[in-house]
Structure formats: C-alpha cells, structure tokens
Amino acid sequence: MKVTLSALNTSESSFTPLVVIELAQDVKEETKEWLKNRIIAKKEDGVRRLLTSGIVIQVFPLHDNEALKKLEDSWYTRFALKYQPIDSIRGYFGETIALYFGFLEYFTFALIPMAVIGLPYYLFVWEDYDKYVIFASFNLIWSTVILEVWKRGCANMTYRWGTLLMKRKFEEPRPGFHGVLGINPITGKEEPLYPSYKRQLRIYLVSLPFVCLCLYFSLYVMMIYFDLEVWALGLHENSGSEWTSVLLYVPSIIYAIVIEIMNRLYRYAAEFLTSWENHRLESAYQNHLILKVLVFNFLNCFASLFYIAFVLKDMKLLRQSLATLLITSQILNQIVESLLPYWLQRKHGVRVKRKMQALKTDIDATLYEQVILEKEMGTYLGTFDDYLELFLQFGYVSLFSCVYPLAAAFAVLNNFTEVNSDALKMCRVFKRPFSEPSASIGVWQLAFETMSVISVVTNCALIGMSPQVNAIFPESKADLILIVVAVEHALLALKFILAFAIPDKPRHIQVKLARLEFESLEALKQQQMKLVTENLKEEPKESGKEKAT
Length: 549
Fold this sequence. Notes:
Blueprint: E1 19-23, H1 29-40, H2 45-53, E2 56-61, H3 65-75, H4 86-93, H5 95-124, H6 129-161, E3 180-183, E4 190-193, H7 196-239, H8 242-247, H9 250-276, H10 282-312, H11 315-358, H12 366-375, H13 384-399, H14 407-429, H15 443-465, H16 467-472, H17 477-501, H18 507-548
Antiparallel strand pairs: 1-2, 3-4
Helix pairs in contact: 4-5, 5-6, 5-14, 6-15, 6-17, 7-9, 7-10, 9-10, 9-11, 10-11, 10-13, 11-14, 13-15, 15-17
Protein name: Anoctamin
Domain Anoctamin transmembrane: 89-515
Main location: membrane
C-alpha cells in the first residue's frame, strides 16, 4: 500500500491512529469501503478474511513513543543489576510477553546457586566423581524446586493481573486456514471446512517422514563432526604444538555453528509443513509446530553429547563439547536475534530520515515517518524462540551437570545480557505486537519438567559409569546397574514427592480464589431467589385474571 502524506495529515484533527493496516497495491475502493464498514461495525472476522486472501498484508499497532520511552528508562537503558518492571511490561506488551520476561528473570536468579556451588567443584575436584554425586543430587532437587516455585510466582502475577482464572474462549479459524465454504455446525457461521482425514494423511504421509529424514541427516552430520574430532586429535598427537592444541576446539565450534544453522533451516521447514497441514485453530497449529521443533532441536543439540557420554565414554571430550556448544550457541543467539537486527533497523531508520528530509512539505510528517519506519520492522512471532532458547540452556545445565558444573555460571552471564538484548529487541527491533492474555507459560512448563526428569536418568548413569563407582563393584556389573537404577528411581520418587508437596498456588491465593467462588455462588443464589420471588408474585395476579374471565 502506498502511503501518502495527505492520508496522514493530522493538522486538521487531533486523531492519532493506534493500528496500521497495510493493504495490497491493487485493492479496489469497494473493498476498502467494505473493510472500513466492518471495522466500524466491530466485525472481527473481516480483517482475518482479508489476511487469508492476501488483500491485507499486515496489521500492527503503532508504538506509543512517550510510554515506550518511560518503559525503556526503567527497563534496560541504564545497565544495572535490578528487577525488571514486569507490571509496566505487562501494561505495554500484555501478559504473554510479561510472563516470558518474568520467567527469564526468575530462571536467571535461580541459576545463581548452581553457579556458586559449581565453581569450586570445577576448580578443586575436577576428576573426583565421588564428590559430584552430591552436586548432581543437588542439581536434581534444584531443578524440581525451581519449577514448582515458579508456578507459585506465576500464580501471584496472573492473579494480580486478573488472568489466573481466564476462561478459554472459542477460537475462530486461523488466518491461512482454507477449504470449501460451508456452515460450521457449532457456530452456525459460514467458514472454510476441511476434512480431518486429509490433514491426518498430510501429517503421517508427508510431515512425519520428513521429520524422520531430518533427524537422520542430523545424526549423519554428527558422525562427520566425530571424524573431524579424530582428525584434530591425531594431528595434535603427531605434532604436539600449541597451534594444534587450539585446533582441538575447532571441530566443536564448527559443529556448534552448523547446529544453529540446521535449527533455523529446520524451523522454516517445520513452519511451512505445519501451515500446509492446514490446521483450523491457532492452538492446534502451535502444538504441532512445537512438537516438530522440540524433537529436532533436542536431538540436534544433545545427540552428540549422549553419544560421547554413553558410547565413546570420553568424559574429557564431553566436557569440551558441552562447553563449546553452550558458549558458541549463546554468542550466536545474541548476535543473530538482537545485535544484527538492531543494526539493520538503525540503518533503515537513517534512510527513512533522509527520505523525510528530502520531502519539502509544510505539514508535520512525524506520524508518516513513524508508520514508514515501523512498517519495515520485523514482526514479532511470539515467545516460542525465546522459550526454546531457555529450554535448550536448561538442558545444557541439567543433563550433564556432574561432568561440567561450570555450565550454570555461563548461563547466568548470558542471561543477564539476554534480559537487556531481548528488551532492546522488543522496543526497537520489532513492531509492537498485539496484547495477548495468559494464565501461565503453557506447554513450556511441561517441557521443562520433562527435561528435569531426563536429567535424573543421565546424571545417575554418568555417576554409575565413573571409575570410582566402578571400583566398588569390580566383579559384578549387574549389582552396579541395579544400584544405579534404584538410586535413579529413588530420586525420581523424591522429585514427584516434592512436586506434590509444593502447592502450585500460594495459600493466600487459594483463600482468595475460594472466597471468590463462594461470593459467586452466593450471588447466583440471590439471583435465583429473586427470580423465584418475582414468579410467585405474578402467579396470584394471573389466577385473579382467570377468575374474572
């Protein structure tokens, strides 16, 4: 849509637009008038239909520059170790994004005890696996406690915001859903209909084989990485120079970069496939996308570490690979997600300002400049990638904690900068997203809890493989396996007991919710009594009329 200065001339009116709708260039005037009438009549499906048909290119709310400046001043412009203004973030961006930043802050502070305890283990008892039993046990209890305590903190926030008891609303078809027009038997509205069996065929005959093929390719790349490791190690053993000792880290660095590239390419493919599956609801689309991406990312990021730990049984290489993968992925994420987009956005902003200076006009073109600038900003696609990054980081920290206890310290350092870079990204790189209410972090809570369960198994297995533990059972490996399995089951039982013992909601929230339910029931009873009383009063009048007739 070509934006003209006359269309944005606000000198004769105090009207300030809140939302920008960009139309395709060949849209007819009749379509524009129809859309305007739908907006005036508050018909929500009008814009959705035009987005699906490609007539509307994008819809986004403009940034409120004054409110944004206040938020930035209290959030990230002054670098300091302080709590984030979560309520202010919620007021500007909505509950979903505020919950992400609240979880990021909470997770960062929760990592500090692990970092503090892991540092002396790294410095003083590097090869003493007996000592790591204590550290790994603490890690397993820690991973359970922090997730349960987060539920309580999340309940506090969402109760304060009024979204804790948010009812699930009926979902409309998502933009992009297509099919033969028909009548929805539930709503009675006309909308596209698509047979579910066709969707299932697409999932099982195309999407599933494609995902399996990608997983196989990921494992193939992993084996190439191990060939490079063997080559670098052989070169170092033959020469023994300082240059070749540095070369030992090159295969891990290259592999970490390849992992990030593969994750991003696969993400595009997964989005295309999930969209092609033609899910009617946005929630179904998101669930299928999350499943595809989580499975691939987990295998792609952690398969090499499991192979080194349980097939090669090389603890030195495991430490080196874990450290390299963690640090390299954190650096790449900071550059690709925040620094590079911010630099590109700044360059675009300079071009727009030069263009505005070249326009000789008497009207105030500030609004025009803002629309043109924000129109070209990236679209924030939700918190999926942000939570995924924290999920993988949690895996690096918890899965192999007894081998590399310094992982938590690197995660803390990264997250302190992540808070500021993500804040910068939201305020200056992306368009302002529409506010979305949320009661929790959703399926990611289950994902983190699943990772903590897997970490119990891996840490118990690593401790059972240590030379010190094997020396206790030199003759009977069966006894060792039974003891490791028993310890693993005992720790899992402890995790579930802790999860059950720690309530998801604080006591004062439970009392307030119970009181709210009681008051609602009392109000309903009073309303019912009032209706019954009114009906009883009307009955004598009606009987009197019957006698008169």
